[in-house]
Amino acid sequence: MPPTPSTFLNGIPELLVLRLLRDREMYGYELVQAIREASADQLTFAEGVIYPLLHTLERDGALSTRRQTINGRSRVYYSITPTGNERLDALSAHWRALTGAIANILKAPHHA
Question: What residue stretches are annotated with the Transcription regulator PadR N-terminal domain (predicted)?
C-alpha cells in the first residue's frame, strides 16, 4: 500500500509555499489554488493546512504580510523575506538530495 500523503509529503507544503511566494506575493486561498494548478491536481492542500503554515512562517520571520481590501473583502498577502529565501534554499537542497537518493534506489538493482 502506498504511503498516505500526510506521511510521505510531510514538510512539502512549506517548500511549495515558499517557492511560490518567491515569484510573487499571494493570499492563502490563492496559494492553495496555485499549488493545485501547478501540480496538475496531484497535490492538494486544504486551507486548514496552508493557513497555519503561513502563520508559523510569518512568526518565524520567513514571511511578511500586508493587508489589502478588495471588493469590500480584506485579504492578507504574504511575501517571502530574506530569512524565507534562506529557508527555501535549504529545503530545496534537502529535497533534491532526498529525491536523488530515492531515484538511485528505484533505477538500479541493489545487492546486499
Answer: 17-89
Burial zone of 82 (CB within 10 Å; 0-12 exposed, 13-18 middle, 19+ buried): exposed
Q: Where are the domains of the chain?
A: 5-107
User: Could you confirm whether domain 5-107 is CATH 3.40.50.720?
Assistant: no
Burial of 31-41, coded b for 16+ CB within 10 Å and e otherwise, reads bbebbeeeeee
Question: CA-to-CA distance for 91 and 95, rounded, in angstroms?
Answer: 6
89-111 pLDDT, tens per residue? 999 998 998 889 889 999 978 66
